[in-house]
């Protein structure tokens, strides 16, 4: 664990266990914020973590853990096996919820059927009692445990309301089953409400299971990123290669990486030549040539030759580790929507409990003959009718239908927040390579290939070359019916190109820069035009002149221009980011009608740019496809990945476009607008239902017309409100 004594201010993210709702997160946050030495605190219920900024001289994680434990929760202290502990906790929690949801449904649904269709049968109360008891006190025991823990510390959450309503309905039904004459002697019908207590437990458990399934995916991106870190590394020790665990690598060690292996730490090449796939860092599809003096980065893949390099950054200091850290921080930051949930949860529960208590007392004080009977029935009715089913279903049902509709249209949406937020987007940041473009180079232009001998020579040298651009050039040349020639000599000139000899004539194949060094390059309008267009160029020359040339470019996607103009027409500001050079970026931006773009940006630059827009008050969407986009995707308010991109990008992003059609971004925003409208309608009816239903359940109409709602009618009203909310949500399917 990090030694807090050595620092004044510590920033740390710690897993929290025992939380069951947004109100729990609020409770943990309140407790921590009260402690001396806690400068800042944000609890995220979605990924069950707390981000802390603490003064190490005034407090410690151990002290804070003790305070959190005192209110019924816990912190998992940082250690070597923290990740293992967290995974074990989440697995156990998910499995327990799954067993409880299935078990409660098996027993609870028959109770509900009996209560609706066989209510007048004399045996029904006894069978319902038998079936509902394990539902309430075994499968639903955590609601009562959590409510009790909250009560001990003078607070309440949704568990409190569920426990109170189901517990009172259950014990009321037990009393009625055992002593029906108590009600008969007072002129009241002895009705039982086992079905209300059981089915509420079933609904809530199923909802929690669905929620847990959604939350469990948030850590998969981090797992994949961590998977890019090799477990072992080859070091040169006393002149010999020796394989050691990555934890033993220190700055200054000499590291060997062989073809096909991932580079373990950041460093500088001492010896060797190879091409390294750095797409996870730069986002660019073409592997980067490495030779003496060039930098290499952890997690990238060495494709060909063996490299020996000096370790410069190890452990948490490597570029990959920094990406992992920033993704974790961005995922753990608190979403605005959660603050609204906190407020509703913190007010709704105590208000309803208070109304039920006031109702009971009022009847006991102001009614005469049947005071206790009326007080009990009305207070139970208040708790049952106010059980937050409609309120709880208002958002998730709309989201579930909206997400299902999106999937049918080729858009995978991972969470409610993104679908809710997408309609508010006013800025969209797009990665260039693989998002706006196809992500692989293709031949755009050429010259000097009319002569079949030149074509044969060109393809012969490219086939002998190991350069990645050859993979795009060879198919193009073979379409010209080229024939392979036998080279008498072939030499790879590091960082420049290749040198070959055919029939005693020396040829050079490489970049403009090399042609200039050889004194072969002559100013040419076509070459200049290619440079202005930002093309990547490859020239074939003999010792006197350039014979042929090929220009390559990453192709813009067919629907990109239409997609961009549609977003711009909707008033959304478009910003393009790329690790590519300025001229190439400028060309793509111009063709797509994008006025804001930034070239030669690193992964941390992308997330920083997103953050800068957010600090201005913008709601920012990020669209990307590579591992290098993961930081920015995690930082953005709404993150969208292309399905042909990296697994990590798709895991970090909350929305994945299955078809890779950019026009789907506009469709996501439109669906979000419709979904938000449905959510607002649902919340309106759920609140109106409570505003009207709770006073009636409390007996407000009794002095006027003698109407007194019994708990069964309250249960029916509760069910009707839930059905109306679900039915309204289903309109999204149209």
TrEMBL record:
* Residue intervals passing through the bilayer: 100-120, 126-148, 160-179, 191-210, 344-366, 372-395, 683-702, 708-730
**Residue span(s) of domain HMA:** 10-76
Q: Which Pfam families match?
A: E1-E2_ATPase, HMA, Hydrolase
Query: Where in the cell does this protein reside?
Result: Cell membrane; Endomembrane system
Question: Its topology with respect to the membrane?
Answer: Multi-pass membrane protein
Family, as annotated? Belongs to the cation transport ATPase (P-type) (TC 3.A.3) family. Type IB subfamily.
What range does the record give for the signal peptide? none
Keywords attached to this Swiss-Prot or TrEMBL record, sorted alphabetically, are: ATP-binding, Cell membrane, Membrane, Metal-binding, Nucleotide-binding, Translocase, Transmembrane, Transmembrane helix
Q: Which organism is it from?
A: Flectobacillus longus
Its taxonomic placement starts with: Bacteria, Pseudomonadati, Bacteroidota, Cytophagia, Cytophagales
PROSITE patterns tied to this protein: ATPASE_E1_E2, HMA_1, HMA_2
Origin: domain of life: Bacteria
The name under which this protein is listed is: Heavy metal translocating P-type ATPase
């Amino acid at each position: 664990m990090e030694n807090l004594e050595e620092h004044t201010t510590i920033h740390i993210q710690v897993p929290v266990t025992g939380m069951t709702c947004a109100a729990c997160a609020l409770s943990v946050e309140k407790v921590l914020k009260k402690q001396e030495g806690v400068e800042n605190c944000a609890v995220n219920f979605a990924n069950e973590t707390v981000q802390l900024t603490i003064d190490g001289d005034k407090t410690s994680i151990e002290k804070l853990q003790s305070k959190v434990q005192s209110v019924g929760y816990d912190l998992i202290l940082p250690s070597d096996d923290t990740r293992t502990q967290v995974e074990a906790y989440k697995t156990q929690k998910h499995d327990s919820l799954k067993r409880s949801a299935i078990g409660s449904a098996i027993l609870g649904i028959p109770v509900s059927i009996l209560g609706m269709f066989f209510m007048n049968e004399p045996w029904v109360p006894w069978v319902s009692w038998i079936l509902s008891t394990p539902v309430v006190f075994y499968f639903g025991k955590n609601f009562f445990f959590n409510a009790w823990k909250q009560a001990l510390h003078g607070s309440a959450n949704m568990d409190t309301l569920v426990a109170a309503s189901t517990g009172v309905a259950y014990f009321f039904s037990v009393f009625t089953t055992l002593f029906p004459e108590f009600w008969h002697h007072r002129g009241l019908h002895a009705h039982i409400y086992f079905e209300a207590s059981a089915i509420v437990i079933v609904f809530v458990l199923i909802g929690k299971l669905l929620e847990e399934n959604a939350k469990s995916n948030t850590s998969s991106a981090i797992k994949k990123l961590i998977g890019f870190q090799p477990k072992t590394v080859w070091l040169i020790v006393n002149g010999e290669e020796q394989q050691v665990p990555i934890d033993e690598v220190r700055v200054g060690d000499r590291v060997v990486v062989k073809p096909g292996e991932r580079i373990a730490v950041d460093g500088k090449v001492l010896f060797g030549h190879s091409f390294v796939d750095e797409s996870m860092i730069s986002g660019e599809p073409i592997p980067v040539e490495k030779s003496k003096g060039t930098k290499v980065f952890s997690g990238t893949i060495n494709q060909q030759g063996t490299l020996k390099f000096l370790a410069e950054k190890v452990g948490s200091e490597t570029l990959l580790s920094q990406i992992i850290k920033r993704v974790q921080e961005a995922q753990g930051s608190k979403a605005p929507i959660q603050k609204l949930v906190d407020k509703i949860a913190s007010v709704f529960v105590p208000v309803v409990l208070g109304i039920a208590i006031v109702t009971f007392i009022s009847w006991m004080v102001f009614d005469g003959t049947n005071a206790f009977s009326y007080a009990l029935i009305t207070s139970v009715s208040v708790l049952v009718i106010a059980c937050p089913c409609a309120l709880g279903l208002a958002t998730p049902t709309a989201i579930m239908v909206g997400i299902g509709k999106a999937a049918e249209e080729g858009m995978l949406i991972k969470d409610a927040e993104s679908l809710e937020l997408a309609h508010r987007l006013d800025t969209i940041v797009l990665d260039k390579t693989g998002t706006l473009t196809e992500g692989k180079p293709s031949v755009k232009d050429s010259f000097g290939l009319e002569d079949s001998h030149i074509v044969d020579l060109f393809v012969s040298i490219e086939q002998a070359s190991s350069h990645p651009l050859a993979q795009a050039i060879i198919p193009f040349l073979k379409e010209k019916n080229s024939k392979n020639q036998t080279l008498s000599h072939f030499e790879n000139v590091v960082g420049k190109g290749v040198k070959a000899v055919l029939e005693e004539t020396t040829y050079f194949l490489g970049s403009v820069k090399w042609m200039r060094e050889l004194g072969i390059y002559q100013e040419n309008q076509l070459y200049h035009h290619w440079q202005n267009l930002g093309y990547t160029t490859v020239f074939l020359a003999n010792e006197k002149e350039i014979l042929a040339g090929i220009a390559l470019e990453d192709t813009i996607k067919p629907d990109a221009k239409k997609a961009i103009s549609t977003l711009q027409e909707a008033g959304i500001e478009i910003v393009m980011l790329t690790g590519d050079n300025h001229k190439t970026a400028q060309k793509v931006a111009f063709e797509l009608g994008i006025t804001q773009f930034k070239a030669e940006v690193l992964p941390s630059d992308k997330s920083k740019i997103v953050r800068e827009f957010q600090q201005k008050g913008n709601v920012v969407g990020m669209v990307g496809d590579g591992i290098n986009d993961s930081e920015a995707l995690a930082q953005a308010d709404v993150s969208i990945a292309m399905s042909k991109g990296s697994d990590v990008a798709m895991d970090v992003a909350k929305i994945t476009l299955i078809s890779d059609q950019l026009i789907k971004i506009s469709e996501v925003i439109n669906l979000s607008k419709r979904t938000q409208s449905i959510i607002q309608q649902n919340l309106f009816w759920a609140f109106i239902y409570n505003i009207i239903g709770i006073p009636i359940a409390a007996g407000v109409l009794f002095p006027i017309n003698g109407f007194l709602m019994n708990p069964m009618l309250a249960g029916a009203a509760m069910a009707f409100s839930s059905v109306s909310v679900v039915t309204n949500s289903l309109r999204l399917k149209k």
